[in-house]
């Protein structure tokens, strides 16, 4: 298996989780037979933010570090980072659009602009994290004869 495919695949999963986590309060209110108490809703939101943090800075950064450590040279890192950001943006957009279609927002134009902006921000955020992981992995790679 090609290691270079892992960061975009992990970024898709992370972006999907972020898309659900950002829309958690309306999802919980829509799903519940009874509306959760404000304290329970706060705990759910804090938990979803923690899970998002762990997925981004634990899983994605770790996978990108592992890939960067195992790659020979730095050719193709830019392409890998762009692919990671693009896949993350598309995955976030698809999940968010699905959730919003199910919830049926009131102000469609404002919601569309907001979703477009957050899609770009998630793509850029995950691309930067992937770049940081690749660079860190490359800097921690054991020295070889080609490096001398």
Defining key terms:
148 residues; mainly alpha; 79% helix; elongated
> In angstroms, what is the radius of gyration?
18 Å
Portion of residues in helices? over 70%
| Class from secondary-structure proportions | mainly alpha
Order of helices and strands: HHHHH
Low-confidence runs (pLDDT<50, min 5 residues)?
A: none
Number of strands: 0
Distance between the termini: 29 Å
Principal-axis shape equals elongated
Mean pLDDT: 88
Please summarize what this structure is.
This protein has 148 residues and is mainly alpha-helical.
Q: Can you tell me about this structure?
A:
The chain has 5 helices and no strands. 29% of the residues are buried. The mean pLDDT is 88. Helices cover 79% and strands 0% of the residues. With 148 residues, it is mainly alpha-helical.
Helix-strand layout with pairing:
Blueprint: H1 6-22, H2 24-31, H3 38-70, H4 77-103, H5 108-139
